[in-house]
């Protein structure tokens, strides 16, 4: 029995569904709403945002950063870091080699296709051929 594209999209969870790995300079289009889109350069962007406007003097910079870490939003920032790095760990676990990468069910991958819908159709076609 061949799986339809609708079945692939309905799979839902990131580990058993559609995952899209990319970076800022490699935009993707037509990603299903339930797809997990992981931007592998997002932690570096968060680092840059946190260190923005820090003084050049290391002691003053440490003081400013400690003040930020004592702020009410710091726990949200840490939680966000955790989510971002989970995506990077997932890419590493899957052996993602380049971006964009569209992965289905942690087993099927299409590299270099920014149109997620087209990549999913390619995966569906290949899966049908395996039957």
Strand order of the largest sheet: 2-1-3-4
Give the end-to-end Cα distance, rounded to a whole number of Å.
8 Å
Q: Characterize the quaternary organization of these chains.
A: single chain
Total strand segments: 4
State the helicity in percent bands.
40-55%
What percentage of the residues does DSSP assign to strands (E)? 5-15%
Q: Quick one: biggest sheet? A: 4 strands, mixed
Radius of gyration: 19 Å
Low-confidence stretches: 1-15
In N-to-C order, the SSE pattern is HEEHHHEEH
Please tell me what the overall shape is: elongated
Class computed from helices, strands and strand pairing: alpha+beta
Helix/strand layout:
Layout: H1 5-10, E1 18-22, E2 36-39, H2 42-51, H3 58-69, H4 74-94, E3 101-104, E4 108-111, H5 116-129
Parallel strand pairs: 1-2
Antiparallel strand pairs: 1-3, 3-4
Verbal overview:
This protein has about 130 residues and is an alpha+beta fold. It is built from 5 helices and 4 strands. It has a 4-stranded mixed sheet with strand order 2-1-3-4, with helices on both faces. The protein has helices at about 5-10, 40-50, 60-70, 75-95, 115-130, and strands spanning about 20, 35-40, 100-105, 110.
